[in-house]
Amino acid sequence: MPNITSLSEFLLLAFADTRELQLLHFGLFLGIYLAALLGNGLILTAVACDHRLHTPMYFFLLNLALLDLSCISTTLPKAMASSLWDTRVISYQGCAAQVLFFPFFLTAEYSMLTVMAYDRYIAICKPLHYGSLLGSRACAQMAAASWGSGFLNAVLHTANTFSLPLCQGNAVDQFFCEVPQILKLSCSDAYLREVGALAFSFSLAFGCFVFLVLSYVQIFRAVLRMPSEQGRHKVFSMCLPHLAVVSLFVSTAFFAYLKPPSISSPSLDLVVSLLYSVVPPAVNPLIYSMRNQELKDAVRKLFLCVLLKHKY
Length: 312
Fold this sequence. Notes:
mainly alpha; about 300 residues; 2 strands; about 75% helix
């Protein structure tokens, strides 16, 4: 019975059989990837360079942009290369890297969105305590906890997945390597061995979800008590982008992993995986910049500085 140590490569799911469609997919993915690079790169540069944005809210947004870039860079470049060069092959090391890094960045992003909800809760419900509760040390610790939880979750799943023997071939029914698809190749009762890792993942996901819901319940209660319409508008401008990003992330990721097996199919799995792994990193910068005047001003100032330096 062959096990995983004897495999040197895996075969990913092909997007199309015809060369024209493969090139079309490459162009589409390239456009999405460049949009993600540009949008998140602008946020990273603007927050880093503009001292007015050196606040907890933008520190967490900087971390989110970095996670978005990392997440989409784990899967999309390989998908683009596969479409361009008409190949399904991914090396064992490349597959292992995707299995490790994708859940790492995905879990860390979910944790970071939870931390950002806490930041908004403190800013709106306890504004007088904002400086003491969200000092630079506390912000660094919360960001480190988000990255750390993602890394721990990824290591648990990766170690368990790659310790299993495989006897179902090496074809992965996905455009990148992820834990559920690798487990399908196992010839042992993989899900029993996954209990510990799944329990940790479920506890983390459920805890973050409950915290997100409770935070926004308190925020909306505070908003309803505000006498000023201008104050309510300011709060909504602050919270709606984050709420939109959370809704997009949670709905697509939860549907991908919790959908009933009866409606599962390779084509549906492919579409859903694209929705939660590729779309959010590309559209998150747009969502955050639409109603954020400070961020728009910082990006505009950044463009002016670049243009002036180029001119002179």
